[in-house]
Amino acid sequence: MRILRILRNYFFYCGIEKDEYNALKKDAYVSNFVIWRILHFLMAAIFGALFVSSCLNELLKQNQMFYLGAFVYSIIAIVLFFILRKDSLLAQFVIYLSITVLFLFGCFITQNKPDIPAATFFVLLLVTPMFMIDKPFFMAIELSAASTLFAVWMYKVKPYDVWMMDFVNVITYSIIGIVLNIIANSVRIKEFILTREINIQKDLDDLTGLKNKGALTREINDFLSDPLTDKGIMFMLDIDRFKSINDTYGHDIGDRVIAQLGTFLGKTFVNHEITGRFGGDEFIVFIKDNDNLDTVNNIAEEIIQGASENVVLPKPEEKISISIGVAIYRGDEKNYSEIFKKADVALYLAKADDKRRFHIFK
Asked: How far is CA 93 from CA 35, 38, 59, 120, in A?
């Protein structure tokens, strides 16, 4: 059973478990998108050159309309690749369609010289799968369909002895192409896993496990730069009299307080919020696509109450308190720095107000 599970994972999930593959699928789609956007420029150049040559060469002239159609298709695909989302299923469909066009090209090239064993088609069977990251199952279907079409088509075109040689080769190279696709997919997917682990480690704060300053800055900037977003709330918070905690109990206890607060925030904000430690005892929570004042009040009260209950000092009767500065984003700020300054001003005002522990920038 273990062997069957391993084979299943390689054939359907590039050698990893299903959940791992689904987590990395969008990264794979983006990689395909980038590679094939470049390859479509190459396809357009090749088919354009072949069409021009077919106007001058009798041998190529019989495929003239295919070259023209493939050239036009390549141009349309290039345009689509500047419109579609990089991780969209439609983009992946266009790629498979382009692979089909290449296989048809191989068939037409072989048809031009029926007395000679095929070469271009078999090269495409081996090379094309190396440029596509997806479930190897899908590429197996693509290669099998192309090989079947080739064998049936060439049976009517080629002498029987040449066709028999091609028939054996098409089966052999289809199997090799599928195996190469499985190997290439598993290697590249594992590269994605390693890259993701490195990026996660680079973006995490060692003490709390939340995002660090660099990750906070980058992700909030990405959100603010999206023209489709114009709502957000930044909460900037720190621990009141944190220096006194360090002086009284020592830095080990101070670090434990920060770690406990980080754990509480990490468990509280588990959806699409951007949560991290800015530095020292300062934390950032950024709520996306919301600018409701009731939400501001509820979240601020939840943080203040939750921090007091979840962070434990050596003397249980002592409780920490939190001050929070709030900046509401409504499409005006263009980068992290601008909204951070407003939240920082609000935090300063909150720390100066003994009655209300959070303040909204106005």
From this structure: 14, 16, 33, 23
